[in-house]
Specification:
Protein name: Toluene efflux pump ttgABC operon repressor
Keywords: DNA-binding
InterPro entries: Homeodomain-like_sf (IPR009057), HTH-type_Tx_Regulator (IPR050624), HTH_TetR (IPR001647)
Largest sheet: none
Distance between the termini: 70 Å
GO molecular function: DNA binding
Low-confidence stretches: none
Length: about 210
């Protein structure tokens, strides 16, 4: 029993040390960006010996990946649901309840991962994620094109002759929403919620008009 307790304590201590390294590094990336932080900086800021940090992470890129992993998973989850019900129904254009679910998913990313968003959007230069912004735009564009094609199959009476440039612009604008929230992180949460809600309502009304949903 005593041996198991000591092993459990060591495991807990290792987990706490790992989390401490991640939190310290997150603050450093927020202040200096990925390029501006070295493993020695992380050692000095965390108070953990450099050689010991390498027992937890092989390099700062691995730490960066751990920091942004949750927000990447959140984006993947949200985008994977875009071309599913209820978005693939004309009811989405007129139902506030259905639109609210999309608003909720967007706000969830913003409220849970504001710092991670700032890091991956503005502080990732030099890392393997430095092209994340363009990759997100490209993925949104692909999803948008697939959405139009699927709506054409379901509702042939709709106008689905939509310019791919408009879809790309819409994709860029959606990423800009997150930029604006990151830049205005000191704004009250209620104001951020209103902004996201109004943006999605504005976009939905525009698509409803273009696609001639009646």
């Amino acid at each position: 029993m005593f041996v198991k307790t000591r092993a459990s304590d060591r495991a807990k201590e290792k987990e706490e040390t790992r989390n401490h390294i991640i939190e310290v590094t997150k603050k450093a990336f927020l202040e200096k960006g990925y390029r501006g932080v070295s493993m020695r900086d992380i050692s000095n800021m965390s108070g953990i010996g450099l050689s010991n940090i390498y027992n937890y992470f092989k390099n700062k890129e691995e730490i960066f990946s751990c920091i942004v992993h949750p927000v990447l998973e959140a984006f993947n989850d949200m985008l994977s649901k875009h071309n599913e019900e209820p978005q693939l129904s004309v009811d989405f254009f007129s139902s506030q309840d259905l639109q609210y679910e999309f608003i909720r998913m967007t706000l969830s990313i913003v409220t849970q991962f504001r710092e991670e968003l700032q890091i991956i959007l503005n502080s990732s230069q030099g890392s393997i994620f430095e092209n994340f912004r363009q990759q997100l735009i490209n993925r949104n564009k692909t999803i948008g094109i697939q959405y139009i094609e699927e709506m054409k199959k379901r509702y042939p009476e709709l106008n689905t002759n939509v310019s791919s440039l408009l879809i790309e612009l819409n994709s860029m604008n959606y990423v800009t929403v997150f930029d604006l929230i990151v830049e205005n992180y000191n704004r009250p949460q209620k104001e951020i919620e209103t902004f996201v809600s109004q943006y999605i309502q504005y976009g939905t009304a525009g698509w409803k008009e273009i696609m001639q949903v009646h």
